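Case study 2.
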Amino acid sequence: MITIFHNPNCGTSRNTLALIRNSGVEPEVVLYLKTPPSKEQLKKLISDMSIPVRNVLRQKGTPFDELELENEKWSDEELLDFMMAHPILINRPIVVTPTGTKLCRPSELVLDILENPQRGAFTKEDGEVVINEKGERV
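Prediction:
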């Protein structure tokens, strides 16, 4: 079972989803802007990724600057509260597989946690070739 916390308006998220599907798996797609994870679930995702809470904050196209989230005064709990109030602050895509949990930026990072090999060539939306015709990472 694979889950992707996905934003269909994000090219990186679309590429990540396509790479998962290129491995022959149809993941559970969570449109996190419509159905955000709970605070506890988000804490677990971050813990499973072994990264700081701040690394999950998205700045571009969000209220990050208005809320002055670059300020070190905010605790992890407060940052999580901001993400709950404004799910657009949650960076994406986050992918959960039996192998691990990862913030897949860039999208090809998902290859590190997919169990199945790629089934064919894959080129990202921007034209970058990631997987060759033999299904091998370039």
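The mean pLDDT is 97.
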